[in-house]
Amino acid sequence: MITVEGLSKRYPLGERPAVDKVDIHVRQGEFVAVMGPSGSGKSTLLNLIGGLDVPDHGKISVDGLSLHNLSEKRRTLIRRRKIGYIFQNYQLLSELNVKENIAFPMAMDRCPREEIQMRVQQLIHALDLKGKENSFPAELSGGQQQRVAIARALAMQPRVILADEPTGNLDRRRSYEVLEILSRLHREERLTIIMVTHDLSVAGCAERVLLFKDGRIESDIRQTEVNLQRALEDFLAELQA
Ligand SMILES: Nc1ncnc2c1ncn2[C@@H]1O[C@H](COP(=O)(O)OP(=O)(O)OP(=O)(O)O)[C@@H](O)[C@H]1O
Ligand SMILES: [Mg+2]
User: Fold this and answer.
1) What are the pLDDT digits (tens) for 212-232?
2) Domains identified in the chain, total number
3) 18: CA distance to ligand 1 center in Å?
4) Does 238 fall in a domain?
5) How many whole angstroms from 227 Cα to the centroid of ligand 2?
6) How far apart are CA 17 and CA 186, in angstroms?
7) What are 70-85's pLDDT values in tens digits?
8) Contact (Cβ atoms closer than 8 angstroms) between residue 78 and residue 24
9) Which residue among 10, 11, 202 has the greatest number of ligand 1 atoms within 8 angstroms of its CB, and so is best to mutate?
10) Nearest atom within ligand 1 for CA of residue 36
């Protein structure tokens, strides 16, 4: 579903590449967590995969479509249709209400009005946002804002969800709710999910964990390995040493 080969990105003034010759293959329906120290390149990686940023080298394909070599316009289109993006700070449009925020990608894609209304109603229901349709982001709790952001990410029925610390600003209970939603999408709709997180218990919900360090993948652990928790703890201990 997602193939990354020889991916590298160095920011202007960066001493070394933020992402350094990375190869990743993610199968359709896989739920992958990405962990690693601050500054190790996790967000950069996600932005590259999501087509929000352009690599210096390497290839990325999502659902059989190559993102490199595309015009900006075409990339935007593919990104909107295939990929749902969830950010730590929600990134809702403050001047739009809940319904309008959720509808935004569909409106940008010029979907028919009735189709938009139907989908928005469906998502309001699925994400338990009933009664909040006309509220503005500033009037919502963090958990509610993140649920609106998830609804917006799902509006175009993407096959891939990229989530950058989706629970980073939420307390335990709200984090758990957001994780429940992601796990359910993964289980029931076979969505492919890549989620960056700093939280061990959050990463534990994924089937596979990529440990990132200095722009490279240090290890790639499958949840079926009984020692996942041990491996993660060792990795964190090593980083703190
Ligand atoms: N827009 C930018 N311009 C220049 N350098 C950047 C930019 N964004 C990130 N960097 C640098 O690239 C490296 C990787 O950053 P990135 O944001 O990908 O890390 P991260 O693993 O997501 O960290 P965190 O866990 O703190 O979110 C860091 O050294 C950072 O300072
Ligand atoms: Mg980051």
Assistant:
1) 999 999 999 887 654 566 666
2) 1
3) 7
4) no
5) 26
6) 32
7) 888 888 888 888 999 9
8) no
9) 11
10) 21
